[in-house]
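Structure tokens please, single chain.
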Amino acid sequence: MIRRTALIALWSLLTATFVATNSIAATPKELPALTFTTLDGNPIRSLDLKGRVVLLDFWASWCVPCRKSFPEVDRLSKDFDSKGLTVIAVNVDEERKNADVFLTQFPHSMTVAFDSKGLAARAFDLQGMPSSLIIDRLGRVRFTHMGYTDKTIGQFRTEVAQLLAEAK
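Here you go.
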């Protein structure tokens, strides 16, 4: 009985931490009007992103899978930037200093923005970290992901390529 309970607890922990979910929006959802603040204090308005394919990658310093996903998403950003992809890594830490420590451990070239009040996370009803949204050129959320596994970055690449190939 104790062994079975321990196995169930272990399975629950692993599932919650490492299982990634992916969904394709049956009806694409319009990107809400949001404003993020970048590392250097500049605003990014979501509605100004129309015309480009966008990956919004929500992460937190306390998120264990984010330590693996963050560098991979940065590599994706480098690979697809010249093709029309904009990647914004949106931090949801309540305290900026925690994000700053994380960022010193993970050098990056993608844009980092902050959502310390959780406004964007609530607007998208995010249920876990990391969570990602892939948005088409018309400003519609076409793919959503929660969690991260070794397969997730491949899904990102496929979905981004699909949206970049669609007519402008």
